[in-house]
Amino acid sequence: MTDQYTDLTQTAPSHLQTAVFYEIKDMPRGETATILFAEDPAIVLHSLNLQLRNNLRWEISRTEAGQWLTVIHRAEDVPPVDVLDALKRDHKRLDAMFSQVIHLTDQNHLVQAHAIMQAFVEGLRRHLAVEHDILAKAIRTPPNAMGQDPTAAMMQEHNEILNQSVMIELSFEETDATPASISPLLAILAGYLSKHEYREEASLFPIWTGAINKAPEAARSALFAQVMATLDGTL
Ligand SMILES: [Fe+2]
Ligand SMILES: [Fe+2]
Where does the chain hold its CATH 1.20.120.520 domain(s)? Predict the structure, then answer.
């Protein structure tokens, strides 16, 4: 792994986002960029990350001199290998965006939180399009031991998650929006979302994997291409 170091402590705040962009735009997967900032770069990085489809991750630490040392890397070092790998990564990606919304809301950065919430809802719609419109239609699932169709249960939860997400997105647009008015809604959805993803990965994904593995190679790769196109290169 190689690392490049840049000192941006003398860069004007209004130029920081562009400066960081030039530092990381050609950074290959597996490499890192270490950047020193005079002020907390969280908002600059969140906003750049939004432009870059949430493809960046970073760790921030304080130096003894009180500056902000940030190590930036790409979200994933290798591209997804198959449909279920792509969906699991998309869960993580959506979770990471949602955590950013919670963090920024708690810090009272409602404009940035709202922008990431919008990107989250857009990403969620794409994710659900893969699960509803592609996989659930292509693969029929038998009822489980309790007589329930696991696909139907998951699809019902999707509607609930999407409705709650849209409601939260709208609540950022209220003129009297405050962290206190939005944080409780975010907390409820965070719990619901992680339970859903866990159950889905435990109950539905093994069935989908089994069905996809039985399909002929040409059908498998066509499905993978369709899924990646629907996720729109975000992974
Ligand atoms: Fe789902
Ligand atoms: Fe999912």
Answer: 83-231
User: What pLDDT, in 10s, does the model give residues 80-129?
Assistant: 889 999 999 999 889 988 988 998 899 898 988 898 899 899 999 999 99
Give the strand pairing for 32-37 and 3-7. Answer: parallel
Average pLDDT estimate for 174-192: 95
- Please name the residues in contact with 68: beta carbons below 8 A apart, sequence gap of 6 or more: 36, 37, 38, 39, 40, 41, 60, 61, 62
- Distance from Cα 112 to the centre of ligand 2, integer Å: 25
- Say which CATH topology domain 83-231 has: Four Helix Bundle (Hemerythrin (Met), subunit A) (1.20.120)
- 137-160 b/e (C-beta count within 10 Å ≥ 16 → b): eebebeeeeeeeebbebbeebbee
| Span(s) in the chain for CATH 3.30.110.40 | 3-74
What is the fold, at CATH topology level, of the domain defined by 3-74?
Translation Initiation Factor IF3 (3.30.110)
Centre of ligand 2 to C-alpha 127, Å, is 6
CA 126 to ligand 2 centroid distance, Å? 10
Under the banding of pLDDT at 50, 70 and 90, the label for residue 235 is: low
